[in-house]
Amino acid sequence: MAPTPVDRNRLWSRLDDAVAKQGVPLPTPVFVVDLDAFDANADDLVRRAHGKPIRVASKSLRVPALIERALAHDGMSGVLAYSLREALWLHDQGISDDVVVAYPTVDRAALAELVASPSAAAAITLMVDDVAHLDVVDSVRFSPVVPVRIAIDVDAGLHLAGRTVGPKRSPLGDVGSVLGLAREVVARTGFRLVGAMTYEGQVAGIQDSVPDARVRSAVLRRVKSMSIRQLAVRRREVADALGSLVELEFWNGGGSGSVAETAADPVVTEVAAGSGLLVPTLFDHYRSFEPRPASYFALPVTRKPAPGVVTVHGGGLTASGAAGPDRLPTPWAPAGLELTGLEGAGEVQTPLVGPSADGLGIGDLVWFRHAKSGEVFEHAGTVHLLAGDELVDAVPTYRGCGQLF
Ligand SMILES: Cc1ncc(COP(=O)(O)O)c(C=O)c1O
């Protein structure tokens, strides 16, 4: 069951009380992660993966302590990173010795570090979908002594009437093209083909049970089931063809919104997930799981412009992607507040309207949820960790560690 207004008001008291118990004022915005919800979400992801390991999508966390906490869960293993520089840092910090970089890199400086470090090269896998990606690696090394681990990204979109529905990523959507690149990797000195990936974003990352968009949701559910059926055939064909060339260590697939469906494919050996740990608003309204939000940020009321309106300081923590109302932060606790159509989430201040406005005073906190999972922490140096009713720890984000990936 999605949180009710009563749940949200209880949460409001819990968060406000936890902040008050600190005894010292916390700088705003205050970022809080509810560890009880985080751990329950981790258990739920593992349960849905039916025995296949979950690889932690670090872009959806961006807080080293939370990546470590996820990795400490039984059933979670390895990191799916979003940049090579990040992967090198995670390895250097001792956070993981099994990091797959999910997106191709042309960062020559980072590649030069990788090929100069036998231990980093043994821990990190690069994603490729083009011979040019191999050429860039070769351009930074003078001796192929340290083999570079390679995985191939296979297009996982739904191929329909000459078009592809799904993320526009890998151009490799059939056996011939995947095998062509795989042969090139195997033939080149200094590379080891160890894995493959299929990210079916049109299944894993699209809400399909939105109460006020029932028809659209029904259509999307159909697209999802067609995608799953079609992709199972493509994966099997590609896996059989690759099997004649090399024995892969892993086949990564899926995301938080498709854990059970992706894990059910016998070709897939592990499922990626990150957003399902923090459950931002874009991960509400999925048929496949119950949302248990775990991440909030608080902004203080600084003005009361008129009855029924409060203005909070800050607010424009919007999410990336196709711009639309669903990318805006949501005033969450107390329940009964909304952004205005005219100002939305503002650059330095945000008006909020609704029945709860008049109950708030200057200095009170309003708690928001972000639309995306890890991206919000690009605005934060520190995240407070809530266990039960107490803030038990304060940990740095990537930004707080001085890292910008
Ligand atoms: C390659 C890849 N795998 C998995 C995911 C799923 O991540 P999450 O579980 O945070 O949605 C993504 C998200 O964009 C991705 O790009």
Structure description:
The chain is an alpha/beta fold and 405 residues long. It has 2 domains: 129 residues, Lyase, Ornithine Decarboxylase, Chain A, domain 1; 242 residues, Alpha-Beta Barrel (TIM Barrel), CATH 3.20.20.10. Strands 1, 12, 13, 14, 15, 16, 17, 18 and 19 form a 9-stranded mixed β-sheet that branches. An 8-stranded parallel beta barrel has the order 2-3-4-5-6-9-10-11, surrounded by 5 helices. Strand 5, helix 7 and strand 6 form a beta-alpha-beta unit. Helix 5 crosses helix 7. The protein is globular, with a radius of gyration of 22 Å. It starts with a helix and ends in a 9-residue tail after the last strand. 46% of the residues are buried. Pyridoxal-5'-phosphate binds next to strand 11 and helix 12.
Describe this structure in a few short sentences.
With 405 residues, the protein is an alpha/beta fold.
Gyration radius from CA atoms, angstroms = 22 Å
Mean pLDDT: 96
Give the overall shape: globular
**What is the total tally of β strands?**
19
Helical content stands at 25-40%
Q: Indicate how many domains the architecture comprises.
A: 2
> Could you tell me which ligands this complex binds, including any ions or cofactors?
pyridoxal-5'-phosphate
The major sheet is characterized as: 9 strands, mixed
Please tell me the CATH architecture of the largest domain by its name.
Alpha-Beta Barrel
Q: What does the oligomeric state look like here?
A: single chain
Please state the structural category.
alpha/beta
Which blocks of ≥5 consecutive residues have pLDDT under 50? Answer: none
